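Let's practice the habit of predicting before peeking. Look at the sequence and jot down your guess about where helices and strands might fall. Then scroll down.
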Amino acid sequence: MSRRDEIDPKLAKHFAWSYVPADQTAALDAAQRAALDAQGAQSTVELPSDSSWPPPSSEAPESGEPADAKEAEIEEIRERARRLAEPVANMIGETWGAPAQDDEERFQTTRRLLVRVGRMGFDVMGFDRWPVEITRLLRMVVRCWDRLTPRLRETAERVAGIAPLVDPEAADLLVEIARAGLSGLAAAIFETEEGWVPEVGDEEALVARLADVIDDGPTYAARCVAAEMIGHFEWRDPAVSALRRALRMPSFGLRARALHALASADPPLLSTDDLVHVLRDLVKHAPPGEITDEDREHDEETFGEAVLLALRFVQPEEAAEALLDVIDAEPDSILLESRWATEALAVGFPETGAVMIDHWLKCARHWDRHKALRAIERLPDELAEPRLRIAASDPNVSMRDDARQQWLKRYGQPCPVGVEGIVGASLLERTPSDTFMARLAVIQGRVPEARRTLARVLLDEAPSREALVLLLQLVADDSESQEPGFHRDDIRWAATLAERFGAPAVLALRALAERFPEPEAFGWVRRASDLVEKGVIVQEHTAPLRELATKRVLAEDDTADLDDSLRLLSLVGAPADVLDRVMRLALGDESGAWEARKLLVAWPDKRIDSQLVSTMAVALAERDWAKLQNVAWVALGRGGPAARVVSQRVLELADESEDAVDAAVVCASRMRELGMIDDAWASEALRRPQSPLFEVAARAWRGSAAVREPLEAALESTARKGASAAVAAESLVNGSPPLSPKDRRLRSVLAGAPPSHRADLIVALCVRGAPFAVIEPYLEPLLTSADPYVTQTLSGIPAWMRSPKARALYKRILPRIVDEELRGEIQELLGEAPAPYWNES
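Done guessing? Here is the structure:
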């Protein structure tokens, strides 16, 4: 491919110093003047760098000068450039072929030659007759790069961007640039014109040599330059293996370039395993560098573009899962975040991408909704059209305008958005009037003060439905209203609407919650619940909210704002048809379980008591202790007599089985609240430390002074392999008055306790200010344990124990700590940054 250089007439003056003497003025020929006059139509004049430079003109100039005369003038310019280049080329040749010089002499010679060539400006193109000499000058520059001043490096990059690299020796130059890791010099060579590469002769051999640099280095910077160079050549097969190995090296910059080189090949050379690996690793390890680092931004941009290219041809389901994980993880990234991941899903998995786009379009925050726009661009028409219509009627001005521009670009005509697309359009009682449409234009406009002024007028028109619908557009634009959830002191729009418009305002809030049900927390359902709880929305107006919450609870495939919907039902009253769904939620531990259990405790229909008891009995028979624990909390909270009978049986089983302890603790605590069992029952159980029921009583009566005597007596017990003594000690430490952490009996208790009970007791002692000497002998095996219960229990201990002795212990055992979160806490305390995953040096 022929190389060409572009001269921008607007920028030509900035280079004039390099080829026009300081005491002279540059004289522009007719062609240059014509180019300057036609900047709006054509901003560049292109000069090819092959033997035909400057290019012959096929047309007569505008001045009417004959073509032969113009060709003669161009030839004169060409020969002048070559005359200027010839003596310099001879000097370069003499220097290259001269006997070995010492380093200082060679550096000074190279520096002088570089300065002289730099002053030639675009006349460097005259080296088209001596391409090997200009290549060799650049090779000499590479060899003394570290000694060049920043200004000389800029000169070298400028020369490299113009020089006619059309000799096979250019391959040696490129390899040397790669090994030196000179990314700026490489960029200057390849970025002159898209698609141009130096004429290196055997490209396959060059790519193979660059692949060796990827494998051998010597640095990751060198590997990055080599990978980026390979990406400019069409024939990349010799480097495929090296590029794939690079995807598993701990350099994000190298991964990005290798990924791009593989993904942009024709056909793509990326395997499904390669793509899944880099995406999963992105979830675990955020890109390195400061968030303001331009190099990091370039690396992320390269990586992101490569993934989008790859997904057009390689679409493993594991990649979709990894992209969803990126969205969930919200990595600390400049570009590789949920917006990009959604766009990637739209490219490789349109159906999944469309679902994710729907999620963003339902979000109450405008910045979340904006995440959908770039992804919509990637969808086919049948999936993009309905989502663009929704975005084109968005309450946020910027979101709405961007979506309409995208529609215009895709379909070639304005988006046909009707009034039915605005938020709360169903509240309108008649066809909108001309006045309504004029006001809507103001509310949807870009003049904030005009919007606010009109809003104040509309508030005074309550209870007009048209005024309410117009106000909804402002309230739904969180950039203006700060709703829902984050309020300014001067105005709280949701409460103001409820106070001014009454029952219609509740319909309006429902419309907002239906249009924007996400996110699960701090959304419109929670905002409405807050207003009900505070009495701003009166009970007689809550029917629309009850209907909405009921619909959300029953929608088993959509868990958006489930917790808030259940809470809303507990405030406004739940209909009978949600009972089965609430019951299923209450018995599990998924989203909404806690709110469902609270709702069932307050359920007004006593007929559910028999269902709860039946469920308790079945769970007991199946020894499903987790379900029994949940249902017992509800059934006993309602005070049902039959539930007490089943709970009594649970306590009997806990006298024999360790597995029943957690469920029995719930039963005992609830039965104590109901007065079914008293302190005498607990004292009796605590006098038998050999029974699991001892732990049930100790935990259910934790902190109670009524059972202090049997608890203290149990401190010397070895029953249950020391577990009973540890539970007794934990209860006493949390008692009133608390057992002193310095009590000598605690040392023997700690020594004999099982690891899980010892961890619980140590946490209680730390909270009470125990000296480090009390727990030191037992801390090391716990911190280095592989038991997740033990290490999770000890999470936070480094914040409590910060003495010099504790620090010494942490430092000594740090390499053996298994739990990553616990290790991170200790590293933060010690001021030791964890070993970096990435290595960009």
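How did you do? Confidence is low (pLDDT under 50) at residues 1-61.
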